Amino acid sequence: MWIRTFKGESLVKRDKETNLSIPLEQRRTSAWDMFATWVGANANNGTWYIGGVLAACGFALAIKVLLFSSVLSYIFLSLVGFIGYKTGVSTMGISRASFGIRGSYLPSLVNFTQFIGWTAVNTFIAATSVSYLLHDLWGWPLYGHAGGARGMFIGIVVMSILHIISIASGSRSVQLIERVGIVLVFIFVIWESIVVFQTVSLQQISAWQVPAGLKMNSGVAVDTVAAFNLAWVTAGADFTRFTAKKSSATAMPFLGALLGVLWFAFIGLIATISIAIATGAYDPNNSDPSTIASKLGLGLLALVVIILTSMTANAVNLMAAGSALSNIFPRLSLKASLWIVAALATLVTFVPMILGSFLTAFIVFLDYIGMVLGPIISVIIVDFYCRSQRQYQVAELTIRGGKYWYHFGVNWFAILAWACGAALFFLLRQLTFLSTTIGATFIDMVFSGVIYYGLMKLWERRRKQKNAD
């Protein structure tokens, strides 16, 4: 699903001296490639887990929230995708126009931290599978039971080594892992669906009631799904910059990502509810694919597939984090950056063990994404569509002292709008009305965009007055 990205690596390196833009005649990604890329983007452990988390809403509400929040999130993906098509520039390159050439380090830092976080999420889920393998093969205690931490520790170390190997082997081996992994994932979800519906019916699943005290409010669920989906938006232009057609950059990412998240989250949702029905007990902490696969009796093969999907997702997560780190520290080589982010991701993976709950750590991580990513996306979109009338001077994106240099390379109004949006998100989350209805994320994104637009209009007006005087 990431093949086109690696094919474009040489283009990206070559175009560092030509304003980071991919010329139209050099773009080779087809509409089908783009659609498959974004379906595959959501074919991973994290999407299954999101579906399991949404089980706390009940089946009907979970489906409504998943559809509502995903559609809105991927509209932003299409908007960013069009900017990538229009300019031929990556998302972090595009952010230079609004945040400033040096100010774009802020979005890069956010991207760096979120990809580290997603690496840790996938690693922890895969490490859980390793611990189940150790339990099934040699009787080691499972995580959560006495002595179970040993299996998780071994699992995290094993997965971290596998991730480093997948990166060190280069893009060709990553492509092979991606191709094999996607096929196995599709087979696995079909297999899991068959097993689920052999156990319980869709009518039983839809009629299941969440136990008192464990129910998740709709607004919280909307924010959870939005944070999961918005994480992809900041990578949108990284792919659409390789497309030569507008529809490939807008419609295909939207349709592909939406299909992927609805399909895989649905599997996680029904599997988690089916376990609750079959066992008579519901525990949201047991929503991870490994626990579900074990309780459904899918065997060792399912656990191996889950481990493999972690490798496919994290090979790219680590490369993206390494690239972001190199963008912040240009003198740091990509190879050195990859070793640094791999080490950091391994350390972060132990955080859920310290907190005692993966679900708690995961929700905190999603809250962080919602707080910092939403305002960044709003600033980028408002700057391009509202302030610049869908036209950027791409040649200026790398020029010191040029149009996008602002004040010593930083547009402080964009930084201020982002900071206000991040603070506002925290405040909006405290409102009961929003937590029980549509959540805070999308409201916060609107306010962040309005704040940025207003600040820039005020700045432009004062600049014109100064020039007139």
UniProtKB/TrEMBL annotation:
Sequence intervals crossing the membrane: 48-68, 74-94, 115-135, 147-168, 180-200, 220-239, 251-278, 298-320, 332-355, 361-385, 405-427, 433-455
Membrane topology, as annotated: Multi-pass membrane protein
Pfam families assigned to the protein according to its UniProt record, in alphabetical order: Transp_cyt_pur
GO cellular component terms, semicolon-separated: plasma membrane
Keyword Metal-binding: no
Superkingdom per UniProt: Bacteria
Keyword Transport carried by entry: yes
InterPro entries, per the entry: CodB, Pur-cyt_permease, Pur-cyt_permease_Fcy2/21/22
This protein's name: Purine-cytosine permease
